[in-house]
Amino acid sequence: MRITPSSARHVYRWDLDKTYLDTDFESLRRLVLIAFEKPEEKVNVPGAPALLRELGREQEGKPPSRIAIVSGSPTQMRRTLEQKLELDGVRWDEFHLKPQWENLRRGRFRAVREQVGYKLPLLLESRTKIAPGVRETLFGDDAEVDAFVYSLYADVVSGRVDEAGMVDALKAAGAYGDAIGRCCKALHRVEPCDAVERIFIILDRRTPPAFFRSLGPRVVPIFNYFQAALVLYSDGHLDAEGVFAVTTAFLKGEGLAPGALANLFQDVVRRGHLAGTAMQDLGLAIQETAQGSALEDEAGVIWNCVQRFVDLGASRRFLPPAPPEGIDYRLILEGLKRDIEGHRAPA
Amino acid sequence: MTVTTIALDCMGGDHGPAEAVAGAAQLSLDRPDLHTVLVGDAVVVGEVLDSLSYAPERLSVVHCDQWVEQGESPKTALANKPRASILMACGLVADGRADAVVTAGNTGAAILAAERKLGRIPGVRRTALAAVTPTELRHGPKEDPFALLLDVGCTLNASSRDLVTFAILGSAYASAISANPRPKVALLSNGAEPHKGPREVVEAHAILAGLMAIDFVGNVEGLDIPKGSADVVVTNGFLGNVVLKMIEGVGEVIADLASDAYARKYLWRLGLTMLSSGIKQIQAVMDWESYGGAPILGFTHPVIKAHGRSHARAIGNAVRVAAKAARSDMARTVERAVAQLPAEDA
Known about the structure:
The complex is a heterodimer of chains A (347) and B (346).
Chain A: E1 10-14, H1 28-36, H2 48-56, E2 66-74, H3 78-87, E3 94-98, H4 100-105, H5 109-113, H6 116-127, E4 135-141, H7 146-158, H8 163-173, H9 177-189, E5 196-202, E6 219-222, H10 225-234, H11 240-253, H12 258-270, H13 279-290, H14 296-311, H15 329-342
Parallel strand pairs in A: 1-2, 1-4, 2-3, 4-5, 5-6
Chain B: E1 4-9, H1 17-30, E2 34-40, H2 42-50, E3 59-63, H3 74-80, H4 85-94, E4 100-103, H5 107-117, E5 128-139, E6 144-150, H6 160-178, E7 184-188, H7 199-209, E8 215-220, H8 224-227, E9 232-234, H9 237-264, H10 266-274, H11 276-286, E10 294-297, E11 303-305, H12 312-327, H13 330-339
Parallel strand pairs in B: 1-2, 1-4, 2-3, 4-11, 6-9, 7-8, 7-9
Antiparallel strand pairs in B: 5-6, 5-10, 10-11
Helix pairs in contact in B: 1-2, 1-12, 3-5, 4-5, 6-7, 6-13, 9-10
C-alpha cells in the first residue's frame, strides 16, 4: 500500500547506494559488476532493512509515514532495485533514479557524477506535494555530498536560505541551468516551514564526525543504524519494538556483541546527539517485556548501555554541535569536498 | 572471536590525550579483536576522537577528572587524587571490565596504582620493570632483534629470590610475546663463572641452575647484552637502569656523531649516503616506538608502561603487546614456577 503525500504523518527520505545498499563503486570494474548483480546478490548496509521496515511499519493510532527514495543509480536498474527492496520486505512510496543514459545522450557529462543538481530539484518537487507542516528525516552517506544537499534543502524549505543563496550554491556545485530552474520553480510552490528534523549521515568511509560540525546539530553522523534507531526512539519515531528489531539485526544478523553495541550507544551520547536519560524509558519497556523472553540479549545491550552512560560521568552533559549562525553553502561545499577527500580535520 | 579489552590511561603521557587517543583510534580500525577503554576527561578525549577516523564499536570512554603529572610524587599524588586516571584504569582491570592496563604516564604512580588495585601474583614479592634492548643476534621463531632486560627500575635492591622470580617473570613474558616457548635466561654479572658477582647473584645462580621451569644459561657480562647471547637478562633495578640508560646514551651519541660527520666533510657525507640503507635498518632496530612499551611484571594482570614521549604508533603497539600478554596464561605460569622455588630462609 502506498501512502499518499497528503496523508503522511512524517516523511523519511533515503539515499540508496552506500546508505541502504553496501555498494562498492570505487572502481570501474565494480561499477560494471553492479549493473549485472541480481537482486538477491545485492548486499545491504547492516541494519538498514530492519530500520526502514520499522519506519514504514504502521503504528497503532498514528497516521502512516511516507518513504521516499532518491538514488543516484541509473533508471535502468529500477526493476532490480525494486525487487531487492521487496525481498527485504521494505515498502516505499516514491522512488527516483538518475537518468544517466539521458545525461550521456545529451552530452551532460558533468551531471553523471554531480549530485546536488540531481537531488535538490527532486527533493523540492516532492516537498510541494507534502502537506504543510509535515516534518522529514533524511538518510544519506559520507561518500558524496549528501550532508550538504540535505542541509541546503532543509534551509531552503525553512526560508533560512533564499532563492539567490540556493542558486549560488547550485552553481558552485556545478548544477546545469535546467536543474536550477526546476529548483526555483518548485521553491515558489513550497510552503516555508522548518520541515527537516534530522539528517542522518552514515559514515561508510569512517569520515571523522567533526567534519560535519559546520552543518549544525541537525546533521547526525552515525556509524551504523543502531545509533540511528536510538536517536529515532528518543525523537519518538520508533517504539521499543522498533529498537529491538534493529538491535536484533545487529546481534543476530551481524554478530555484534552487546558490549560493542553499548560502545556505539556511548559514542552517540558523547557526541551530544542523544540524551542518555532518553534510555530510561527504553530500559523500563525492556524490563517489562524482555525478562524471560527471547529478548534477553537485547536487554543485555540496554544494561551495557546504562554502564557506558555511567562511565561518561553521571553529571556531565554532552552537547551537539552548535547551530550555525549563517551558512555559506558555497564555502561549506568547498570545505566538505576538501575534508572528505583528504580526511583532514577542519580548521 | 574473542575480544580483549585494554584500559588505556589517556592522560599520562607528555603529549596528553592527543597521541593516546590517536593510537587507540587507529587500532580500532585495524584490530577487530581489541576493545580499548579510553580513561580520561571525556570531553577532551571526545574532541580528539571526533577529529579522527575510528571504529566506535571497539572504543569506549571512562571519564575521570584527575590524573598524575609526570613530575609528581606518586604516593602523594595518588593519596590526593583518588579518581586519578591510572587508578581508574587499574580499577577497571580489577573489576573484570578490562584485561590489561597501558599507560604512558608517571611510572611510580603506575606501579603504586597496580599494587593497590591489582595486587601481585601469589609468590611474587617484588615487581620488575622490563625493557627491550636491541641486539645483534635474533631471538625466537619470529627472529626478534631484541632481548628483554629486567629489572630496569622497580626494585633497586633485589634479593637472590627476587632475581630468581624476575627470571621466571621475564621467561614467561618473553615466551608470551615472542612466541618463544623456552627463552634463554641469563643473570647479569661481572663474569661467566657461577661464583662471580655479589652474594645475591651467586645465590640466585645456584637456585636457577636447579630450576627446570626455565632455560637458565648462566651468567652474562655487559658486553653480551648487545650481542644478544640471551633472550632474557636479569639484574636488579639499580644496575638495570644504569645499563639501559647507557645503551640509550651510546645510541644517541652515535647518531650525533654521524650527523656531525655528515655536516663536516663532503666525503663523509658521501660515505654516509652510501650507507643509508644499512643505517635505516639499524634505526629500525633501535626504534623504541615499535616495541610497544615496557611491561611491569609481577602483577596479576599485564601492566604496560609506554614511554612518556610516545606518539600514536608507540601507544598502539603498547596496546597490542598488552593484549598479547593478556591472552597468554602468564600469571598462572609464573605462579606455578614460583611455587617450585625452595622455601626462603626467615
